[in-house]
Amino acid sequence: MRILHFSLGLPPYRSGGLTKYVTDLMVSQSESGDEVSLLYPGDYTFWRVPKVKIIKDQNYNGILVYKIENPIIVPLRHGVKNPLSITYPKYRLTLKDLEIFYDQIRPDLMHVHTLMGLPEELLNYLKYKGVKILFTTHDYYGLCLKVNFIDQKGLLCDLSDKEKCAICNRNSPDQLFLRLRNSKYLLKYKKRLASNARKLEEPKTNLHEEIIPTQKKIEEYGSLLSHYNRLFEQIDFFHFNSNVTKECYEKHLTPKKSNILPISNANISDNRKIRSINKSLIRIGYIGSMATYKGYPLLKSVLNFLNKKGINNWILQIWGGKLGKEPLCEFIEFKGEFTSSELERVFDQIDLLIVPSIWKETFSFITLEALSFGLPVLVSENVGAKDIVETYDPFFVFQQSKEELQLKLEAILGDPTLIENFNNKICQGSFDYSLKGHVLKLKELYINTINGKNI
Questions:
Q1: How many CB atoms lie within 10 A of CB 156?
Q2: Is the distance from CB of 108 to CB of 2 less than 8 angstroms?
Q3: Taking the CA of residue 269 as centre, how many other CA atoms within 13 Å lie in the half-sphere pointing to its CB?
Q4: All domains of the chain, ordered by start, with CATH?
Q5: I want to staple 18 with a disulfide (CB 3.0 to 4.6 A). Which of 76, 138, 252, 435 is the partner?
Q6: Measured between alpha carbons, how far is residue 255 from residues 38, 240, 247, 384 in Å?
Q7: Distance CA 237, CA 114 (A)
Q8: For 130-184, how does the pLDDT look when each residue is reduced to its tens digit (9 = 90+)?
Q9: Which of 237, 56, 245, 68 is closest to 149 using CA atoms?
C-alpha cells in the first residue's frame, strides 16, 4: 500500500507524542513493506518572496520525505491572531505543484495527523484524484484554535464558536513569532523558545475584564472555523484514539465513518511485573508540564490539603522539568528531566502515577507506558487512556473535580493494598497495545477506508 502521512515533521525539528507516534508508525509500516511518504509544513523564507512549494527533503529510514516551503502558519498551542493569514493566504500551491507531487508518490491513502499547515488545495486535489483520507485525532485543532479547549480564563470550554475564538485568541503571538518558533535554523534555541512559549500558554486575561471583539474580527474567526469545517468534510474516516476524543469531536461534527483504536509507539512493550511498595510512604509520581490544563496545580492543592489533614504517608515526585524541592512543601520533589530509555528507572521510583488532566486529553502515552511496566495509574475522566485503565480497575478513574481526587487519594493512602491489587490486575490481565499490533489494526482501518466500509 502507498501511504502518504501529513504531520508536523520529524525529530529533532518536532517532538512530543504526536511526532513520536507518527515517526514510529511510519518506520514500522515501511519495514512491513508499505511505500511510505511524509509531507510536513516546513520553513519560511525571510530573504525572498515567500512562494509556496513542495520540496523533496532528506529520506528518513526508508521513508520519502517532502516539505512545504512557506506553508500557512503553524500555531502549535499558541492560537491564531490573524485568521485571514490562513483563510486567505497570499500564496498557494499551484495546480502544477500538486500534479508534480502527486505523480511522485501516487498514494492510495493520505493519513492526516494535524490540520496545522495543511493546504486546502492539496486536500481537494487528492480527493479529486480518488485518494482516500484518514484522520487521527491527536488534538482538537480545527475545532479549537488553541488545540485543547481551554479558554482564556483557564477553564474547560465546550464551544467551537467564532465569538469565543475571537476572545480566546486575542493575546496570541503574531506571525513573526510563529515563523521564528517553527524555523529549523533556530533549532539550537528550541528549549529557550519552548520555555517562552509555555509562558504564553497560561491564561493572562483578568477574570473580570470585559473583552468585546469587533464584529469584523468575529467574522474573520467565523470564516476560519468554516475553513476547517471544509477540511473535516473531506475526511473519509476518523480514527479516534479514545472515547474522550470521539465524544468531543461528535459534539461538533458528524463523521462519515469512524472507529476507536488506541494508539501506541515503539516504547510500548509488555514489561509488566509485580511491584512491592512501602505502605508507610507511598511514592506518588507526576510526569509532564506544570501548565494548569494538565492538572498539576489541582494535584498539588489536594495533596497539601491532605497533608494539613494529617495524611502524610506520601511523597510527590515530579518528573520532566527542574530539579529541587518545592519551597512550600517538603513532601514535593522535582526530579528533573529524563529520556525515553530511562522510563523503567523512573517508574521503579514510583508506586502510583497520577494523570489529573483538566483538558480533554485525547490519549496520554505516559499512562499506557506506565501500565506497560505494571505501574498503577490514577487518571481523571478527561484522560483518553482511561479506556485502558478501566479494563484493569475502574476505581482508578476519578471524576474531574478537587473533591473526587481528594476522596480517591484518601482511600488509596488509607489502604495502600489498593495499589498492590491494581498492580496484580495489570499483570494478570491481557496486554495488547504493542506498536506491531497497532499497525496491523490500523491497516484494517486503511483497507476499510479505501473500500468505503465502516467498522
A1: 14
A2: yes
A3: 8
A4: 2-203+211-266+436-451 (3.40.50.2000), 282-428 (3.40.50.2000)
A5: 138
A6: 25, 11, 11, 19
A7: 14
A8: 999 999 999 999 999 999 999 988 889 988 899 999 999 999 988 888 888 777 7
A9: 245
